[in-house]
Design goal:
The protein has 141 residues and is α+β, with helices and mostly antiparallel strands. The chain folds into 2 domains: 32 residues; 99 residues, OB fold (Dihydrolipoamide Acetyltransferase, E2P), CATH 2.40.50.140. It is built from 2 helices and 9 strands. The longest helix has 32 residues. The protein starts with a helix and ends with a strand.
């Protein structure tokens, strides 16, 4: 009976240690990526201008913008889910046009080379199409 009790204690302590490690990693990931509930919270904002070559879907419903002049991509986090954008609508609205994109420049353990930027504002011409800080897109299809 005492051996069973010791085995149960070992399993439980191992489980709690595992949960603690996972929780700590989740907190660190949130702090390092600077994204909480789909919105950028850390990092400095940079603004660029370029011509849209393509809009594609990234993992987890992201709307990903590819600009002709840049190797990096810029994405609206969960843009195809939370903001009701469609790829077709975004392509029709922006392909071949000059856009101004503000994005969060930050260090991420998942993108050490800075190949993608979390977009927080998209302007086409004089129209603000998306502004994350306001919580909703200025444009709805």
């Amino acid at each position: 009976m005492e051996n069973n009790s010791m085995a149960i204690r070992k399993v439980l302590s191992g489980t709690f240690v595992g949960i603690g490690i996972c929780g700590t990693l989740l907190i660190l990931w949130t702090a390092l990526t600077g994204i909480y509930k789909g919105k950028s919270v850390l990092g400095s904002t940079k603004t660029i201008t370029g011509k849209v070559a393509e809009v594609s879907e990234g993992g987890a419903y992201d709307a990903v913008f590819h600009l002709e002049q840049y190797k990096s991509t810029f994405y609206i986090n969960r843009g195809l889910q939370y903001y009701d954008f469609t790829l077709e609508g975004l392509m029709q609205l922006s392909k071949g046009k000059e856009v101004t994109i503000s994005y969060v420049s930050q260090l991420s353990p998942f993108d050490m080379e800075g190949r993608s930027g979390h977009m927080n504002r998209l302007v086409i011409g004089d129209s603000v199409v998306f502004d994350e800080m306001k919580g909703i897109p200025a444009y709805k299809e």
